[in-house]
Design a protein that fits this description.
mainly beta, three-stranded antiparallel beta sheet, 1 helix, 10 strands
Length: 179
């Protein structure tokens, strides 16, 4: 997994679990690129090789002459964080259709935040997620099924992510640390 840092990144669709869909929007200058997965594991779970090392990588070219499919514009939600509180996230988003979140870190001090979309399983609430984070700290993030994230947004910056969620209950959360 350390080899990931050897490559110049132009974006990421991170941590897409089985059954989930992650969507990203990229604007690339003309050139040659690759997509790759640096997650580790094997079929059925457990420790295993870096997925790129077993073929989960694909080269492609970005060219001005390439044809792109016409896509309907996805709704965009302007979500921000200030005083460790998210603002602007709607209570309901479209199921099974892409939507975009433009996430701005509006804290008045230097700190990094993220916006992680996780499923709330049947019987679980946002209060359960908060209690888990209080009890286990950043290790609690792995207790929740991820459906994408906008990671490491510093104060004054904006990160953008496109998501497509099956019908269900979800939460957004930040497992970064700091005060």
């Amino acid at each position: 997994p350390d080899s990931e840092d050897d490559w110049l990144h132009f974006g990421e669709i991170g941590e897409v679990n089985t059954g989930a869909t992650g969507v990203g929007t990229f604007q690339l200058p003309a050139g040659n690129y690759a997509i790759a997965c640096w997650q580790e594991g094997k079929a059925g779970g457990g420790k295993g090789p870096v997925h790129a090392s077993i073929g989960m990588a694909k080269a492609f070219t970005a060219a001005a002459s390439a044809n792109a499919p016409q896509a309907a514009a996805a709704p965009t939600y302007q979500v921000s964080v200030s005083k460790f509180t998210y603002q602007g996230m709607p209570d309901t988003v479209p199921a099974g259709k892409p939507f975009t979140i433009a996430f701005t870190n509006k804290e008045s001090f230097e700190i990094t935040h993220e916006l992680v979309v996780v499923a709330l399983p049947s019987g679980k609430t946002l209060d359960d997620l908060v209690a888990d984070a209080k009890a286990k700290g950043p290790d609690s993030e792995d207790d929740w099924l991820h459906f994408g994230e906008i990671g490491e947004v510093n104060t004054g910056a904006t990160g953008v992510g496109t998501f497509q969620l099956p019908a269900g209950n979800y939460a957004i959360a930040c497992w970064q640390e700091g005060k």
